[in-house]
Amino acid sequence: MASSSNQSPLPSFEDANEVPANPHISASVPSGAAQIPYQGRKTLPTQNVMYVCDFDMCFTYVLAGWEGTANDARIFMEAVSDPQSKFPHPPTGKYYVVDSGYSNMLGYLAPYRGQRYHLNDYPETRLPLSAREKFNHSHSSLRNIIERCFGVLKARFPILKMMPSYSLRKQRNIVITSCAIHNFIRRHAMEDDLFLEYGIDDMIVPGEGPSDPSETTSYANLSASESQKRRHEMDSYRDGIRTGMSLHYRLPM
Question: Taking Cα atoms as reference points, which of 58, 48, 56, 55 lies closest to residue 21?
Fold first, then answer.
């Protein structure tokens, strides 16, 4: 499902490859004990769906069917460690732009925690005051693509906002099929009204917030020392981008 045109729009993030996220989709579950695992962030039944999209607003990976209470980090680790999930790992030398619920680790570039992050945290009167904030603002601008991509999906397929009483298997397949149709339209109908509406880079689409940081991602099947080494490599890479921004924009580190 890879797109033929997938280049980061920001020079400082030229090795950025794709953007993962876990928006929630409406789920229809019988009332009672069976519904409890699906009561997600807004108490209504949802399924937690892991998406990866490219910078051309196409979905390159969809893992649907998880309960709404499932932690994003758990879903991620299941996806990357299970060969049957066919998770598309970042190519060598590239990375995914992930939110603060992910660890900053090799192949997955996370923002700096404890700093302003979301685009609406940076109105015209409150521009970035440090290189860390500039990094986070640029990082958030890149991740905005997944919110806009998901905005198109929900606008085109209202069924995703209020799922009928189908079997859970059928509900999962509806999500996957919707993404496939989304990709087909993106590639073959470039004048589509919804893609034109949501195609503005600076458009702010309300998201669901970052993944739960209480359970962060880590490397599967690696020793603690090797995991720490890979995190250190990505920390150094992130600091390198920050240093470049500090020099270019004359901002304190």
Answer: 48
The pTM assigned to this predicted structure is 0.88
Contact between 245 and 131 (Cβ < 8 Å):
yes
Burial 43-63, CB ≥16 within 10 A → b, else e: eebbbbbbbbbbbbbbbbbbb
Instruction: Report the C-alpha gap between 33 and 26 in whole angstroms.
Output: 18
Q: What is the pLDDT of residues 161-219, one digit of tens each?
A: 999 999 999 999 999 999 999 999 999 987 899 999 998 876 777 665 555 555 555 55
What values do phi and psi take at 200, rounded to 5? Answer: -75, 125
Which range, 29-43, 76-90, 174-188, has the best average confidence (pLDDT)? 174-188
Residue whose token pair is 């570039």: 109
Distance between CA atoms of residues 5 and 65, nearest Å: 29
Give yes or no for a contact between 126 and 132, defined as CB atoms under 8 angstroms apart: no
**Closest of 47, 48, 52 to residue 28, by C-alpha:** 47
How many C-beta neighbours within 10 Å does residue 211 have?
22
Query: Sign of the CA dihedral 55, 23, 218, 141?
Result: positive
Cβ burial of 208 (10 Å; 0-12, 13-18, 19+) is middle
